[in-house]
Design a protein that fits this description.
Elements: H1 14-36, E1 38-41, E2 50-55, H2 67-78, E3 83-87, H3 110-122, E4 128-131, H4 135-138, H5 142-150, E5 160-167, E6 170-177, H6 190-198, E7 204-207, E8 214-220, E9 225-231, H7 240-244, E10 255-260, E11 271-274, H8 277-288
Parallel strand pairs: 1-5, 2-3, 3-4, 6-7, 7-9
Antiparallel strand pairs: 2-10, 5-6, 8-9, 10-11
Helix pairs in contact: 2-8
């Protein structure tokens, strides 16, 4: 029987939908390709060494956050020429679910916590290269809120960042993650070590998350690669979970400084790791022949 009427199509035609989804896929792939090794230009400063301070999990609103140390480390980075900052994740507690009861143990409200992070991001004077989103950052729409606080001033990925630091013609590949897969009771840097052997090809692997610290330098024989691995302890100085499970608390390594020397051709001397941000800033200033700037 012949159709006696015609109505406009209510839904998007499949052909148009396929075209739109194809464009969206291409955009996502282009973004992922760009993030594979994100190029970040470092001012040459006549080829002198530069540094990156990798701040461990801050948990800045936690009652047991070592605020004096965090403030001193932020000030040291802000006052050292050629020093940049990267945070490995978990800026605040941002409790969710049954853990929200822990808010009752803190005098810091969620609003104050977000103001604190905004201050660290924009008012502490640190030249941030990247701020990694950790598991605590993801909860409660935290990454979206963090993105609004951060703006477009630095890179804000979830869980990991693959950075290619470019200083003139020299390049350093740095793989930063909130944590790498793999654990060993006998090797604190087992996760980044595993990533070096079985994952990405980088010069430096840095993570946090487990509130412990360690640094390691080794050569992958036969491949010509000298690799550096580090885990930053973070600034949460006490933890009920750790106490309950009998974990001992480390006293150093809240942040790790990596000093890069673009002039050095020996791969064993191109990167130096220092498990103390203020000490690392002092070493960088000495290597560059500069005095630290006045505190802001």
């Amino acid at each position: 029987m012949a159709r006696r009427f015609a109505l406009p199509e209510m839904d998007e035609p499949i052909g148009e939908w396929l075209d739109r989804r194809s464009r969206a896929f291409d955009r996502r792939q282009a973004r992922r390709k760009a993030e594979a090794w994100l190029p970040i230009a470092i001012p040459e400063h006549r080829g002198r060494p530069f540094g990156v301070a990798f701040f461990g999990d801050m948990h800045a609103d936690n009652p047991d956050c070592n605020i004096p140390l965090l403030r001193a480390d932020l000030a040291a980075v802000a006052s050292t020429a050629g020093m940049f900052g990267v945070h490995v994740g978990d800026g605040t507690d941002n409790w969710v679910g049954r853990l929200m009861s822990k808010f009752a143990e803190s005098e810091t409200t969620q609003k104050q916590a977000r103001r604190l992070i905004q201050h660290i991001l924009h008012k502490a004077g640190v030249d941030w290269l990247a701020w990694i989103g950790g598991n605590h950052d993801k909860w409660n729409e935290g990454l979206a809120i963090l993105g609004l606080l951060a703006g477009d001033s630095f890179y804000l990925p979830f869980w990991e960042a693959k950075l290619e630091l470019r200083c003139g013609r020299e390049k350093f590949r740095v793989h930063v993650a909130h944590d790498f897969r793999g654990h060993s009771d006998w090797n604190i840097t087992h996760g980044p070590l595993k990533a070096a052997y079985k994952g990405s090809v980088a010069d430096l692997y840095v993570c946090g998350h487990k509130h412990d610290w360690g640094i390691q330098q080794f050569e992958i024989a036969g491949h010509g690669r000298v690799v550096h691995a580090a885990r930053a302890r973070g600034y949460k100085w006490a933890d009920d979970y750790a106490t309950e499970h009998g974990f001992q608390s480390a006293s150093h390594g809240a942040g790790i400084v990596a000093i890069f020397d673009p002039r050095e051709k020996n791969p064993a001397r191109r990167i130096m790791l220092v498990p103390d941000i203020q000490h690392g800033c002092a070493i960088l200033a000495a290597l560059r022949g500069e005095r630290p700037k006045r505190k802001r």
